[in-house]
Amino acid sequence: MGAKIEEIEAAAHDNAMTYIQALRHFSTFAFGLHLSRQPVQLSQLLALSSPIYRLELAMIGRLFAQDGSLYADIIADKPENLATIETLKESFEQGLDFFKRNDKAGFIKAFEEVHHWFGDYSEQFLKESRVLLQQAHDSRK
């Protein structure tokens, strides 16, 4: 993969970085923090994980192999980052509410709304992830 230059206004770039960097890094941090405080052994999770979940755990672990100060700076860079992270928290709460209310139909409706938002990218990402998973599997041999 080579680099690609994308022409974009500075404000649009900064807005996109809120989602590409701050939200992603925060959610990865929160997932790792949560796992580290649970009564589970990472080695057992890895042993029982399918390739996609092993890759997800690898991406979480990768974050924690790096400089926490860098990630703190990215996440706290601007107030919009924290406001967007708050909306992620609300999405978690809304998602959990489907199950607290035993609302399978509501969950499926929301699932389909997200599927529609992703559009053709859903199938593209499914294919791309299969290739990535195969490459990850091959590198473990």
TrEMBL record:
Keywords: Oxidoreductase. The keyword Oxidoreductase applies. It comes from the Bacteria. GO terms for biological process: tyrosine biosynthetic process. One of its GO terms (molecular function) is NAD+ binding. InterPro entries: 6-PGluconate_DH-like_C_sf (IPR008927), PDH_C (IPR046825), Preph/Arog_dehydrog (IPR050812), Prephen_DH (IPR003099). Residues 1-129 form the Prephenate/arogenate dehydrogenase domain. This is T-protein. It comes from Mannheimia haemolytica (Pasteurella haemolytica).
